[in-house]
Amino acid sequence: MDPPFSLDALLAARAAAGRPYAEVLRVEAFSVGVYELGVGAEDLQRPHSEDELYAVLRGKAAFTMAGETHPVAPGALLYVPAGVPHRFHDIEEESWTLRVRSSDLETWVSIRKAPMASPEAPVCPI
Which of 8, 106, 113, 123 is deepest in the core (most CB within 10 A)? Predict the structure, then answer.
């Protein structure tokens, strides 16, 4: 898939993959994918070896990271450091998130001068 990406194209790529997550872009510095969980779905993620940044596009759920739980809805931005346990749960509305993964996400985000949540504040509105 070539940029620019529309939300419809991203969701179509995820549906075509036939699983909750579909990667839509991979370059040397990072990858981007779409993650969709239906109402009542179980998030089976395990800690990853790369930092992650989630942008909630649609839906309502709870998000637990390192034992702390936060409600999430469209506009929430979640930063997850590499190796930290995390998951979405108590999904009230079908949830779609855009996920960015990088082995050096902190550098990647700061180069672009974008605000980034710290591990102490894993959820912030965008």
Answer: 123
Read off the pTM: 0.74
Average the pLDDT over each of 16-25, 92-101, 104-113 and give the range with the smallest value.
104-113
Using an 8 Å Cβ cutoff, are 86 and 53 in contact? no
14: which DSSP letter? H
Helix (H) or strand (E) holding 103: none
Q: b/e per residue, 50-85, with b = 16+ CB within 10 A? A: bbbbbebbebbbebbbeeeeeebebebbbbbbeebe
| pLDDT at 121 exceeding the cut of 60 | no
* 3-state SS, residue 18: coil
End-to-end, the C-alpha distance of the chain in Å comes to 26
Q: What residues contact 107, with CB distance under 8 A and at least 6 apart?
A: none
Domains and CATH numbers, the chain: 35-125 (2.60.120.10)
CB 58 within 8 A of CB 97: no
Residues 6+ apart with CB under 8 A from 50: 82, 101, 102, 103, 105
